[in-house]
Amino acid sequence: MTDRDTSIGTPDHGTGEIFAEVLERFISRRSVLKAGAALGLASVGASLLETPPAADAATLDFVAIPADPADADRLVVPPGYRAQVLIRWGDPILPGAEPWNPERQSAAQQARQFGYNNDFVGYLPLPYGSNSSTRGLLVVNHEYTNAELMFANYSLERQTREQVDITMAAHGISVVEVVRQPDGSWRYRPDSPYNRRITATTPIQLTGPAAGHPWLVTSADPTGSWVLGTLNNCAGGKTPWGTVLSGEENFNGYFDNAGRLPADDLRRASLQRYGIPTGLGRYQWSKYYDRFDVSKEPNESFRFGWVVEIDPYDPTATPKKRTALGRAKHEAATFALNPDGRLAVYMGDDERFDYIYKFVPSGRFNPNNRAANLGLLDEGTLYVARFNDDGTGRWIPLVWGQNGLTPENGFGSQADVLIHTRIAADLVGATKMDRPEDMEWNPVNGKVYAVMTNNEQRGGSGRPGPDAANPRPNNRTGHILEISEASDDVTATTFTWNVFILGGLPNDPSSYYAGFPKEQITSALAAPDNIVFDSQGTMWIATDGATGPLGINDGVYAVPVAGSERGYLRQFLSSPAGSEVCGPEFTPDNTTFFVAIQHPGEEGTVEKPVSTWPDGLPYPRPAVVAITAEHGGRIGQGSSSALFTGQPGSGLAELFRRLFR
Ligand code: FEO
Ligand code: CA
Ligand code: CA
Question: Distance from the CA of 580 to the center of ligand 2, in angstroms?
Answer without folding.
Answer: 7
